[in-house]
Amino acid sequence: MSNCFHLAIEGGDLNKTLSFYTDVMMCKLGPKEEGKWQDIDFFGNELTLHESVPRKFKSHERTLHNVDMGAVCVPHFGIHLPWNIYEKVKENVEHLGHFYDAPYVRFEGQDTQQETFFVEDPNYNMLEIKSIQGTYYNNNAIDSFNNKTQKDDRQRELWDTHHG
Known about the structure:
It is a single chain. By secondary structure, this protein is α+β, with helices and mostly antiparallel strands. It has a single domain, classed as Roll (2,3-Dihydroxybiphenyl 1,2-Dioxygenase, domain 1), CATH 3.10.180. The chain is 29% helix and 38% strand. Strands 1-4-3-2 form a four-stranded mixed beta sheet. Strands 7-10-9-8 form a four-stranded mixed beta sheet. The protein is globular and about 50 Å long. Residues 139-151 have low confidence and may be disordered.
């Protein structure tokens, strides 16, 4: 995982939260310190979930920001996925009946066109999942990401080599 992004967040009850990331988001587990934290291979990036008191309510720090398609929840984090993986994750979330904001197309017909949705993990962390369909983002950084994502097996081998 060279040049990957790392984010550490409160995971609440990890037994409950981990199944969301592995079963719904289709992520692989990485290293862990039992009862304290668990790394998630979040599509080639490192997401660390820290065991914490599970939140009973959504964060009071959340605000809604008005953008082109309405009000989006901030803070949130997310990922740009190739269409085939995006579709699988979207289907998993549909089976949960757990969309915060259902899938919709932004910037339709423009070179920035994308489909996106928002979903909360079991500890009320907000995620935005999207797939870019336009041409604007087809630059070296996104091409590099898409190639890395499509070569998922190689990334997992590297992860295993470096993280046991």
